[in-house]
Amino acid sequence: MKEQNDAALAERLAAVKAAMSDEEKAAIIEASNSFEVEDDASEYVSQLQAVTVESLPEEVKEYDVLDETDEAGVRHIDAIAGVDGIGQANIFLDASGIPQEDLHWFKLYTDLLGNLDTGAHTRAELTTLISNDDDLAAGYDLVRELVFDSKLDDVARVQETVVNLENGLKNSISGAPYNVGLYRAIGSWSGLYRYYSYMNFIEYYEFLEQVEAMAETDPDAVVEKLSGIRDYFNNSANAVAMFAGNEESIALNRGLADTFLGALDNRPIEPVTYDLPDAAAAEALVVESAVQYNGLVADFASLGLDGFDAGMDALTALVSDVCLYPLLRDQYGAYSVFHGAMVDGGVYIVSYRDPNVVETFQVYSQLHDKVSAIPLDQETLNGYILSAYAAYAMPEGELTGAITAAVDVMDTAEGSDLVAYMRELKAMTPEKVQAYADLYQKLYENGRIFTAGGAAAIEANKDLYDAVLNPFDAQDPTQVGFEDLPEDHEQYEAVRFAFESGLMLPLEENVFGVDEPATMGDTLTALYVVVGGDLNPEDALAFFAQYGLASEDLDLDEVITASDAAGVMSALANLMGAEWSDDTAADEVMTRGDLATMLNQFLADLGE
Fold it and tell me: Averaged over 259-280, what is the pLDDT?
């Protein structure tokens, strides 16, 4: 349609031009050449700006929160919300007495809930029941059934769920390995993040592998361990019943929560002190990836700071724009960079989909000098302050805000003072930015570094690291050979590029499947990697469906024709603001080798 419209417009303009005299044409040319373009639109922008830093409000919505402990020792925290007919109930049971050797069994137990039949319902029936949130009393009954009546002795189903958890966790870690590196590094200073990392990443994956094998060799031990976790939580000691809603709903929930907790035992709990493994000061994580993620992290004490200051939100955004993006992305080819400060963690920088290692850490080492040299005025800085301020001023939903207020009351750690953060952010000045230059020197000198990426890149830079982790036994793709891809194969180079770039995975350990039919999943996943995604077909489908480039119910195993594959690539190119087509693509099923060849051409053309 665009081509038709352009052709029609060109025809009309040609007719207009043909009807004009030479004098009329010369007059139009002279007027065009003499037109002066106004380069500076800042005056007009300032006229449109409705809010200034000075006028930003310093206020947050307050909720009335009732906090009391009853005779049975149960703590009730109720937040009054201006809602009608809805509410949110939370029950917290104390897990602090679980022995360290059982922590992963605790995590597995929670992951199994809803994936097992119960004494009264099948998994399919539970899925329907869980989505029904109209009846609060029925909700409590369902929670009791899930937590205390799941069929833990269905070892076959437990093992099946464990395998699914393994695969999902492997995909999650491989797709976003920087999260593992970031939380492991912050965990060096923070017990909270060390616990989180231990429970959710590499150590949990290794535990799942052990449970999968144990389900074969000693199924009774699996049932015994899971049953022990279930029995541990049959205890109302130190329990917290939390609710957000109006006064009428709070009164209704009080009775239901008391009934739920009153049915549990009440035994004293002796908190356990955990000694969890620490990350190395310089650590590498090997995953199946053609790119790297290079991180630098330090807590506030290591940076010579008392703690978080919200002015860092403007600082890190400024440093990203002025220093990190021009160097890491524009000069060295990283896809992006994350830089920020965590209230309860510290300061971090992570390069995203980075082709380099050494060059990136060299950039980090130069930040002190570069930040010191930033020419900055208050007006420019105010733009970053306004942008960062939105995160603090963004209103929550009434119910969400109320439950957040209730959680803040329960949390024994120092809570977040949003008004104080607003004031700190508004007080940020160019002079404070310059004073923070030393932060970047200490960040580089005292921080912990990590790289997550491909085996070849990490092996080439192994002297940088104190420890190298390879939980999935990932290999250097350049050293992997395929029985069906001899060097004289006409598609050898294309397939090697697609594999080594992380666009396509082999069908088997030593078989790429070069002559096997390509599928929709192969195509969408490869293109999803191109735009910064991971090798996850389901995530790829969700991405393309979001932009209307694929149907949500598409069969990922469906074979694809060359013309269809070219159509998807053309649509993606248009989404990226480019044009691409392959007029030679036939309406016939393509092989995986053909797909690799088309991907090579697609990327080469986009590069040009």
Answer: 96
**What would the DSSP string read from start to end of 217-266?**
H-HHHHHHHHHHHHHHTSB-TT-EEEEEE-HHHHHHHHHHHHHHHHTSB-
Token couple for 28: 């139009």
Q: How much is the pTM? A: 0.80
DSSP 472: T
- Report d(CA 315, CA 367) in Å as an integer: 13
Q: Which of 441, 445, 450, 446 is nearest to 367 (CA)?
A: 441
536-546 pLDDT, tens per residue?
899 899 999 99
Give the pLDDT score at 276.
97
Q: What is the pLDDT of residues 230-255, one digit of tens each?
A: 999 999 999 999 999 999 999 999 99
Report which DSSP code applies to 323: I
pLDDT at 24: 87
| Cα–Cα distance for residue pair 241/399, rounded to 1 Å | 16
- pLDDT at residue 52, rounded to an integer: 84
User: H-type helices in 461-501, by residue range?
Assistant: 492-500
Q: Where are the domains of the chain?
A: 2-36, 65-173+193-262, 282-469, 480-607
d(Cα 578, Cα 565) in Å, to the nearest integer?
17
Q: In this structure, what DSSP letter does residue 508 have?
A: B
The structure tokens listed for 498 are 């697609």
**CATH annotation of 282-469:** 3.30.830.10
Beta bridge partners of 69: 75
**What is d(CA 46, CA 66) in angstroms, rounded to the nearest whole number?**
46
CATH architecture of 65-173+193-262: 2-Layer Sandwich (3.30)
